[in-house]
Design brief:
This is AraC family transcriptional regulator. It holds the Pfam family GyrI-like. One of its GO terms (molecular function) is DNA-binding transcription factor activity. The protein has 285 residues and is α+β, with helices and mostly antiparallel strands. The protein is 40% helix and 21% strand. It is built from ten helices and eight strands. Strands 1-6-8-7-3-4-2-5 form an eight-stranded antiparallel sheet. The chain is elongated, with a radius of gyration of 22 Å. The two termini are 14 Å apart. 32% of the residues are buried.
């Protein structure tokens, strides 16, 4: 349960410092993981980003104070991290559906997001098929792009990125260049920036040798990997399996994710069929 406990410690830290300027490194330090891993795990378990959680909680407290005190709206805007009353009003209306002035007058309803407590349900009813693999360092090559993350699990624009690489033949070229142990194409998430809410996503293939023009390289150090089966059509099978890994498998095993980018391995030639077989690779410590 160490992973869950460390995540709750980070959440408690965010709650204590809701009115302060805190960085991704400050938050992740409480969970003893990197900023990238903390954001990824947090989003998988809660279906929202760290930034979205902070925004929702601050606006919840702002609404409570607006309804119960005579504090000026401009003062509340600055208190809860907004540069202007206008930006505060826009964010307030997006969450609550009414303006701060309407909330003060008791017009309309307020939407409250309560303090988050992570509770993991260790069902164990459905088996998870996985294997442990020890590998020396290896390389992957591919196409890398930066994306703005959404407010929930998943990265807007990535499905279109896959469609584009399939359409222009780059996926086929990567498959031809694949000469490593992991067959198929890899989907690699790395370099998450909580402040900007962006992440790099690469469509790649394991490759040993000369790097053709136009491709980026990705280095994986020697590590022990937990390799999970994801059976069923994508993306649902990948999303469901990933959630089970972090909400069930990690809490019930004495492992923690290592500071190495995890990836999806799309092995099946038809990832959308009912019994499609693909894998999720997560380095462990």
């Amino acid at each position: 349960m160490a992973l869950v406990e460390s995540l709750q410690k980070a959440i408690d830290y965010m709650e204590t410092h809701l009115l302060d300027t805190i960085t991704a490194a400050d938050i992740a330090k409480q969970a003893n993981v990197s900023s990238f891993h903390f954001q990824r795990i947090f989003m998988i378990l809660t279906d929202m980003s760290v930034g979205e959680y902070l925004r929702r909680r601050r606006l919840t407290l702002a609404a409570q104070e607006l309804s119960s005190t005579d504090s000026k709206i401009i003062d509340l805007a600055f208190k809860y991290g907004y540069d202007t009353p206008e930006s505060f009003s826009r964010a307030f209306r997006k969450q609550h559906g009414i303006t701060p002035s309407e909330a003060r007058k008791g017009i309309g309803k307020l939407q409250s997001y309560n303090r988050l407590v992570i509770q993991v349900n260790l069902k164990g009813a459905e088996p998870m098929n996985y294997r442990i693999v020890k590998r020396n360092a290896f390389e992957a090559i591919g196409i890398k792009r930066k994306f703005q993350c959404g407010e929930e699990m998943g990265i807007p624009g990535v499905p279109e990125f896959w469609e584009e690489t399939n359409r222009n033949g780059e996926s086929a070229k990567l498959l031809q260049l694949n000469n490593g142990q992991i067959k198929g194409l890899l989907g690699i998430c790395s370099n998450f920036n909580i402040g900007k809410n962006t992440t790099d996503y690469s469509i790649a293939a394991e490759h040993n040798g000369e790097i053709p023009d136009g491709f980026s390289t990705f280095h994986f150090p020697a590590a022990k990997w937990a390799v999970f089966e994801a059976r069923g059509p994508v993306p649902d099978a990948i999303i469901d399996t990933t959630k089970k890994i972090y909400s069930e498998w990690f809490p019930s095993n004495g492992c923690e994710p290592a500071e190495i980018a995890s990836f999806e391995a799309y092995i099946d030639s038809d990832p959308y069929k009912k019994d499609s077989y693909n894998e999720i690779w997560i380095a462990i410590k």
